[in-house]
Design a protein that fits this description.
The protein has 197 residues and is of the alpha+beta class. The protein has six helices and six strands; from the N terminus they run ααααααββββββ. Helices cover 61% and strands 14% of the residues.
Length: 197
């Protein structure tokens, strides 16, 4: 092995695979350019000893191995990223199915508060809070939208537009008909709002 190649190999041992692959490619380009400069005739081919042929074959195999290793590292990185995304959104279907139940709980609590039966309200609040906390622990998060917020078509769903009761509510949210929810960073249900015109 030439001194230059030996120095390059020693440098590569502490480098990441990507840098090693780039170095190997650079070496191959240099060798091809050198070969173009020195045309080989049949005599030069015959002069190659068996040892040199074996070294060339070994170098080719090492190159193949490094390329394969780099591809495998990229594959592992990509699949682990995809797996994390899948885990984050795996509960989406179940959570979406539970949202109407959560809405019904909210409506029931509002109606019970009107009736004034404290014991009944307290019991339903306990169940409601436990249900809500369980969903929150699985990544569900309510979107905070209130009257007077600016309307954003990217995150709000306008179901109707009414004349604004106050001038400051023109083009803004007048009422929230249905709450929106996120699962992680993804919106699984957009808040349904009424806007003022």
């Amino acid at each position: 092995m030439s001194k230059k190649k030996k120095d390059i190999r020693e440098e590569q041992q502490g480098q990441p695979v990507k840098d090693q692959v780039e170095d190997v490619i650079d070496e191959a380009i240099d060798e091809v350019e050198k070969d173009k400069e020195e045309p080989k005739d049949e005599e030069n081919q015959a002069e190659l000893t068996e040892e040199e042929k074996l070294k060339e074959d070994l170098q080719k195999e090492k190159d193949k191995f490094l390329r394969l290793f780099a591809e495998f590292e990229n594959y592992k990185r990509r699949t682990s990223k995809e797996r994390l995304e899948l885990f984050k959104t795996a509960n989406q279907e179940v959570m979406t199915a539970m949202l109407p139940v959560l809405d019904d709980f909210d409506r029931a609590l509002n109606e019970l508060r009107k009736s004034g039966e404290e014991e009944l309200i307290h019991g339903v609040e306990l169940i409601h809070n436990k249900f809500k906390e369980t969903l929150n622990s699985k990544g569900l998060e309510a979107m905070n939208v209130k009257e007077g917020d600016a309307f954003d078509s990217e995150i709000h769903e306008a179901i109707t537009q009414i004349p604004a009761p106050k001038d400051k509510l023109k083009g803004k949210i007048v009422d929230v008909v249905e709450r929106g929810y996120k699962l992680g960073e993804r919106i699984i249900r957009f808040p349904k709002v009424v806007t003022g015109k």
